[in-house]
User: Fold these one by one.
Assistant:
Number 1:
Amino acid sequence: MLKIMKNRFRLIVYRSLGGMIYLHDKETGLRVSLETKDMARAVEFLVAKNEAAREPAFNLQKARVYMAASDPGVATRTWGDALGKLTTSKPEGSENRARLERFSKEKALAPILKVVLLETRSDQVLEVLKAGRVSTNTFLRRLQNFCVGMNWLPWPILPAKLWPRIRYKKKRAIKYEEHLKIIARELNLERRAFYELCWHLGGSQSDVANLEAEDVDWTDNTVCYERRKLGGLDDTDIKPPIIKIGKRCAAILRSLPQSGPLFPNLKKVKAKDRANEFRQRCQGLGIKGVSLHSYRYSWAERARKAGYPLRQAEEALGHNCKAVHWAYAKRAQVTVDSLEDYEETAAKKLGSAESAGTNSPLPVARP
């Protein structure tokens, strides 16, 4: 049932102010003095204000009529309803679903949850973004795109260019010295091995915590696992990488169960609880600015410093985009060798080949 349009403004006469007439806005609750006591002039101004406000409301009413023909819930669907649908669209027990459930409890989001989608103003969205955090910006943007994609919104409430830029906190890698302090302080053998594998494999905490003994192939000394982040994607082109394991990594894996989960206890712990435990240990050691995710930064920076092939690094980290890998490794300090030295070395090799008098001629570069 569609709502009947009502006047937005009305008049209020203050007898205590000698009969001064004020204009009251029902939507915002603001009252503005008309600077007059003449009721006839005040009524003229009231009619003009209501007519000006009625035109956009009438257009919105027409839009509701057209959209209600194919979607009966268009007049009552709120942001809370849309968020519930988006949440249940994610696999049960997945990290994405858990994040959306946490997002629905944010205080900054509360004022907009009961607002009907088609009645939402852009300034309401901006107020939520202003009061919220980085996650508010990220998930509210995702929620708006979901509503547009479901045809619950004819167009975005807030255009893409007007969304505040997402500014993440500065992240850094865990230094080797810090890693040694962490594992030296850790008395729990399972958790210590967990931190060690995060260092050697560069996997996310959920991926490493859910490793199985069957993921390790001792014949080829490799480990292969699918990223939980991509577990819901039915794409045959996305295949997990096969990662060679070194001697230190192999020694850690040998010390863990040889069947079933490698970390049977940590596997049952929620990701946020594992992160809190790690943060507490770092605080006790005076290590600041790192999290469990920082082990991925460490792996990428070490790979870049060692001259590890970029393509293999992308495969190991589970990303296909070069920009993502460089984002992980942007803090790595790499010394670039002199081109002059390379040229001199190449010239010496060329001279040695000519003086050797080999029968086979040197290959000539073709344009």
Number 2:
Amino acid sequence: MPSLTKPVEALLRRFQGQRPLRGGSLLITLFGDAIAPRGGAVTLGSLIDLAHPFGLAERLVRTSVARLAAEGWLAATRHGRRSEYRLTGSGGKLFAAATRRIYGVNPSSWEGQWTVAVLPPASGRGISAKAPMAKTRAPLGKAPGKRRNARDELRWLGFGQLSPGVYAHPSCSLEQARGWLAAVGYAKHCWLLKSATAGLAADRSLAAEGWNLAEIARRYRRFRDTFAPLAAAVRDSAPLAPQPAFLVRTLLIHEYRKIHLQDPLLPPALLPAAWVGTEAYELTARLYSAVFAASEQFLADTGRTISGVLPPAGAEVHARFGGIDVSRLR
């Protein structure tokens, strides 16, 4: 059977060659994919150990975790000389929303309704460009000013911008939108409407206006070209050992989520023919399932909380990508 050493090493070199190397972004992936399903808390020491296979130095992990805590993603608890980091309430809600998008099944039909979010003007009674950040807001947008960050949050949640202050989403309900906006502190600063266009041609025009589908497709193709050879090698080889399986799983989701969370997940009627996003989803599902059991073993052996080992993952994690074979899990 062929060795997987070279494909895995190539994947790792590609990640480490990114400039700047964003340790905080990878830690977000680790928390969302691996830690959140197991209670959402981990000691700093074991987080350093989990990040070590990716080449993240201890100092970078410490700096990144401190920054994520300052921004509101994480909360720290100290027990003597040991520290434990846990997802905050607002951070946990956003992770839950992202999890549903990343691992859920793409829509196959559509009722023809758009959820429209309207931000008030930046002056007068609207959201001031100099207003302080909402305390419940998770740090998704980076530009100063609450209105600018509201735009970034809406786009991260899958809304497309149709014009200044007007955003649309093809599949979320009004209730889901209210929950998302509440999690980032904008529920009181946004009007939500349910709307329909004059027909399919107008819907496709709206989709083309709200999202750069050509750029999303380009990124999906690059993702496919990176991971398809690795998926074929995994299929044709002996099972990966726990540590490289964890590395592959994490980098797979790390790269996929950066594209997928910008994808509006439009229904087939609004997408170009042979949409590459479908191929990317199926590739991710196959490779994730193939390395999941071994990667969970590494996580169980390495991750710790202040009170001991990480708790087992909840049943919902086994439903990711339509269902994962759990027969080999510890």
Number 3:
Amino acid sequence: MSRVTEVVAHRGSSADVPEHTLAAYLRAIDDGADALECDVRLTADGHLVCVHDRRIDRTSDGSGVVSVMTLEDLHRHDFGRWRDAGTSRPTSGGPDLSDPVVIDEDLRRVLTLERLLELVVDSEREIGLAIETKHPTRYGALVEERTVELLRRFGLARPRSERDSRIRIMSFSQLSMRRVRQLAPGLPTVFLMDRVPLRFRDGSLPFGSAIAGPSIDIVREHPRYVQRVHEAGGRLHVWTVDNPSDVALCERLGVEAIITNRPGPVLAQLGRTGSGGPVRAHR
């Protein structure tokens, strides 16, 4: 039986729909993505929200630093209208989720990790989730503590088998991964890299991590690194893979997961039709 490369929607189908919005994740599921990816930051009142940047200026109609804002503060801003309408294809059936003007207000507001987890468990087909903890942060270990606490509440903090990476925590911070290892020993962690540290160039990974998360630049420039990780018993989840030639390279090298802003086209290139199924979007 041939191996299937997992396709992970980076911040949702973010090439088509404003990143990290509920609309972007609904589109990703509709596109057939195997898993979703998100970044998490902690608000001043202790909520985990899916926002990549330290500030909300780029991705909303407001400004400010996430860590000093409350969830109520963030809810005052629109996280969908910043993208120009009409730049992407509509979803099959239903509203055009590429057009911020027609996206329901609830689909454009800041997204909490709790709401995203509800979407994952409510899906009528199995969906994975890759959660990236953003560091440095003024809240330190509290980010990992709150993340694992939420996963426990949803029954997702314990993998079903040794190779089960349906739910995984990713970070560029080795300290973050050590914290996750202490809080939830079985939960897979992905060591993200924009360059490979000298001590790990032999394909080894930090203690407790079995998945390497190199950038596509690393894979493109050093394809033998993929072989070294595999020889050391590890797996690779590569980011952010949008170019068809890079998709082909990852498939040829046998990486386990492709993290992409364009899950639909990537699935099509891999010869997989969109497997999106119904999902209960509103509760």
Number 4:
Amino acid sequence: MSKIAKIVLLLSLLTAVAVSQTVQAPATNVPAQGAPLKNLSKQQDGHWSPYTAPEFGQEARVHVVQRGDTLWDLARQYLNNPYLWPQIWELNTYITNPHWIYPGDPLLIEQPKLVDRPEVPAEPEVVTEEPVESMGALKRQLPPTKFERKPLDLVVKDIDTYYATDYELYGTGRINQTPMVFDTFIVGAEDENIQRYFDEGEIVYINKGMRQNVSPGQRFSILRSAGEIHNPVTNAFVGYYYLELGTLKVLIAHDDKAIAQVDLATRAVHIGDALVPFQETDKLVRDKARKPQRFIEDNGKSTGNIVYIEDSLSIAGSGNVVYLNLGRNQNVAPGQICTVYRVEGKYKQTDEFYPSNRYDSYKEKVEPGFKAASHAATVKREIPRIILGEVVIIQVFENTAKAKVINARQSLDLGNYIQLQ
């Protein structure tokens, strides 16, 4: 034997020894292959086998034997090493001869891992208590939580507590006797490159800063000019109307500019809208016990007209905001109630009302004096004023006021009369 052949033989022996040390050796009690097993029987699933396989459960990893399968090949497939085939045989004790496995036989490849079942606390015993008389008593019976620092206060907010909301107080409009002079404006916005108008929470820039006495935390009302208002009855000039778009709050003030955030927006805010210092208005507590005055007489107090309805509406109902041509100079104050009415009779031109007998079929020759007598009566009629509803003053200006309709028996029209109660 040559020297090279001896070296190759030596390396082969060393490799065999290494494999025998790292790979599990076949079981020593493996029976000889012998002849095919006899006494095959038909199993429940229809395949034939000399074995009766146990139930492995749904969580077990099982391989169903296919034609041509051997434990050697299955060990290579599932265990990545054909020499580990005895491990599969040891998991399947019902296989008496590993040389003979039959198509349809289930082979357990991996036993499911058993996990200790967590202990489930027993349900607490139900104890019948006396009925709880109040929410406070219920809160006292609740056990304190782990992170509880102070008792939980339950706050119930009555939406009918006040006559007007922030939306109506700071997001509708105002009428000024003379044109307002503005020098503070929204001149830019953080997202102006992708949108044309801005809403609550968005960042805008204004053209004043610390040198103009603008400081962080300061609030402004956002206004926009919307034209003149005239009395719809007399056509007399009432004032200049300015839309209130909402409010903003200054976050950072530089020397001559500031960064602010819109904190209330009732309409779309645009670059170029004007700013005036915010003035908070006291909220008016609603009198829930008050009943509408249906037949209230003229009391001699100041009268005026509805000169504008919010959003340029032609009629108003309960909840709408309207504007009156009475204000601070006429001793009008927030919280006052005004009667809304219309007048008939001598205050109305002849034949404006609907004649009840215009389409009645009667024969004048039978009652020749009826038509003349009816006409004479209606021409001279004087009837009480017609009460349409009531408004409450929520904000006053120099000669005008903002009011909210609190009840309306009919729709309220532009020009309807109002009188302080």
